[in-house]
């Protein structure tokens, strides 16, 4: 376990190094707003102090030294907007200082190496480090500069420490960005999963409300319009059975919400199956005075996903007949299996009427996801619902 973790850390470090090395030459990492304000304050303070110092010492310092120091100070300020441009200015200042043998601001140049490594590409950082090294060697090679080898060693160590600090901060910043991106992706995936589960629950509730409650409303209207005791008894029985079934389905949906049942549509159980569903629909439509003929193979065997999808089509189509096709007298249900596909046709002889949209829309989307087809259209003989699914994925 420890070895595996160590290998992951080594791989992560290698990937970070390769990513840094492959960074485009002019690419840069912007400073945060807080750091920008601090840099501006630092630059203004440094310019004021340097100006007061040079005014106090008079002509003791050379013009070249003043140019180098001012250029480095202004370059630090440019890091607020364009770090690569600031680095190029620093490289030019280092070249001038090395050529003139100016040792002033060497410490500042070494300290700034960390800022360069944090904001700029590896190639530009290397170019600045080389120019800083050349500046240091040029100063050490001039005896009149008075710069001792021990001072050169201190500058070299300071440069190395600054470089490592800059790279470490850059790595932490990139890691924080990567974690933030991963968190955003995870939140998006969770939101999509929640939406998916809400849609599934909405489908279940739609089936319960649209089908069972439609039966309750239909037979409640019958009770208001008839005094025939046999008809009233049949309607009361239908209302009671529909209410019990609705309560059962609602408990099942609540079990899904609590995590007691799987929400995946291909695993949602279908307690009735095709035969049971057709029998229930035949009974419900028959109580409404609609005759049902069914043509289903006796040896029918369907995958769970196909079974659930087709029973949904039958129930939704029956619900639409009860709700909208008030003039229907007959319903035909035909199921065929041909060449690896199962085909369902649900037709009625109703006159033109407005149909519900939500259930049809969800069924069409479900069949599309399963690689099948779904059509609901008005034809000369009435409404025809056609659904097809492949028996294999």
Give an account of the 3D structure:
67% of the residues lie in helices and 10% in strands. It has 393 residues and is of the alpha+beta class. Among the domains are: 11-147, no CATH class; 272-393, Heat Shock Protein 90. Strand 2 and strand 3 form a beta hairpin. Helix 3 runs antiparallel to helix 4 and helix 9 packs parallel to helix 10. The model is unreliable at 263-271 (pLDDT under 50).
Based on helices, strands and strand pairing, what is the structural class?
alpha+beta
Q: How much of the residues is beta strand, in percent?
A: 5-15%
- Cα distance, first to last residue? 39 Å
Q: Kindly state the number of beta strands.
A: 5
Order of helices and strands: HHHHHHHHHEHEEHEE
The largest sheet, given as strand count, sense and whether it forms a barrel, is: 5 strands, mixed
Lateral arrangement of strands in the main beta sheet: 1-2-3-5-4
Q: What is the mean pLDDT? A: 80
The backbone outline, from C-alpha atoms, is rod-shaped
Compact overview of the structure:
The protein has 393 residues and is α+β, with helices and mostly antiparallel strands. The protein contains 11 helices and 5 strands.
Write the layout of secondary structure elements.
Blueprint: H1 2-21, H2 33-57, H3 63-78, H4 83-100, H5 106-119, H6 122-140, H7 149-225, H8 229-257, H9 273-287, E1 291-295, H10 304-323, E2 330-338, E3 341-348, H11 358-369, E4 373-379, E5 382-390
Helix pairs in contact: 2-3, 3-4, 4-6, 5-6, 5-7, 6-7, 7-8, 7-10, 9-10, 10-11
Pick out its properties.
five-stranded mixed β-sheet; 11 helices; 10% strand; alpha+beta; Heat Shock Protein 90; 393 residues
């Amino acid at each position: 376990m420890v070895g595996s973790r160590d290998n992951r850390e080594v791989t992560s470090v290698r990937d970070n190094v390769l990513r840094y090395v492959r960074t485009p030459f002019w690419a840069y990492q912007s400073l945060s707003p807080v750091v920008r304000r601090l840099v501006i304050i630092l630059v203004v303070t440094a310019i004021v102090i340097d100006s007061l110092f040079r005014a106090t010492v008079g002509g003791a310092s050379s013009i070249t030294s003043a140019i180098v120091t001012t250029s480095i100070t202004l370059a630090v300020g440019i890091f607020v907007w364009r770090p690569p441009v600031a680095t190029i200015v620093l490289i030019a200042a280092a070249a001038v200082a090395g050529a003139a043998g100016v040792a002033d601001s060497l410490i500042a140049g070494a300290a700034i190496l960390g800022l360069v490594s944090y904001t700029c590409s590896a190639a530009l950082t290397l170019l600045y480090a080389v120019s800083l090294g050349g500046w240091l060697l040029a100063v050490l090679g001039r005896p009149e500069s008075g710069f001792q080898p021990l001072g050169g060693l201190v500058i070299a160590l300071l440069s190395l420490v600054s470089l490592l600090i800059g790279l470490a901060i850059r790595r932490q910043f990139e890691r924080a960005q990567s974690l933030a991106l991963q968190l955003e992706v995870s939140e998006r995936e969770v939101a999509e999963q929640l939406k998916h589960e809400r849609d599934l629950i909405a489908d279940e509730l739609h089936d319960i409300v649209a089908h069972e409650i439609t039966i309750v409303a239909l037979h409640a209207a019958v009770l208001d319009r008839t005094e025939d005791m046999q008809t009233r008894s049949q309607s009361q029985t239908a209302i009671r059975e529909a209410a019990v079934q609705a309560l059962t389905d609602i408990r099942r949906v609540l079990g899904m919400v609590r995590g007691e049942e799987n929400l995946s549509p291909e695993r949602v159980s279908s307690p009735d199956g095709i035969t049971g569903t057709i029998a229930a629909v035949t009974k419900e439509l028959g109580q409404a005075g609609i005759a049902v003929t069914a043509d289903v193979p006796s040896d029918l065997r369907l995958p769970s996903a196909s079974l659930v999808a087709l029973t949904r089509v039958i129930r939704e189509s029956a619900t639409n007949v009860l709700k909208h096709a008030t003039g229907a007298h007959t319903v035909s249900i035909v199921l065929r299996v041909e060449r690896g596909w199962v085909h369902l046709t649900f037709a009625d002889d109703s006159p033109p009427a407005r149909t519900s949209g939500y259930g049809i829309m969800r069924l069409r989307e479900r069949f599309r996801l399963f690689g099948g087809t779904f059509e609901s259209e008005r034809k000369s003989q009435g409404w025809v619902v056609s659904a097809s699914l492949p028996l294999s994925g």
